[in-house]
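Deliverable D4.2, example record:
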Amino acid sequence: MKEESVRIPCGELQLEGLIAVAVGATPARGAVICHPHPQYGGSMYNNVVEAALEAMWQLGMATLRFNFRGVGASGGEYGGGAGEVEDAKAAMRFLLAREGVAGQGAAMLGYSFGAAVAMRAGAELAEVDTIVAIALPIVMGDFSAAGQSGKRIVLIAGDRDDYCPAHALEALARRLGSAAILKLIPGADHFFGGFENRLCGALRELIATR
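Output generated by the structure prediction step:
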């Protein structure tokens, strides 16, 4: 799907993003995708972000990927996590205001640091009904608010992920309760090198099942 470069207002900042909206007879569900840690080279051009994009496009969803504050052409500087949650919320508001995008039933996705952001931002937005956390760094919080939000939560990781150990993710899924769906990809580590297609397929299947 063809993406268009956009500028996303977030308070006094402007964030750069890429939006893709297919013109159809009915409005498309929206999906915002959050990238990995800004201080470790994370950006919207990450391989996992692009695998997630492909999955959303195959489902006919409208997408917005963006750079957090201080990354690429986005204004500002690293916000310690709280600022990035505001970025993600601003990105979702921007996407859902776009012509051709449904105002409800959206998905908030994130990878690694971006997964932690998505868990927090998605829990705070009524328009979001699905949160997808890819390789969620368990040490970044207890994420209880997401479990109490009433939203569907998809947890997905490789079974060789040192930053998101399977046993810890399984424990989190139990704490989150019946709203949580857990998927482990055999052989994949935190970075999903060589497993992008498998990740794409898993995301497509899990998000299509509502």
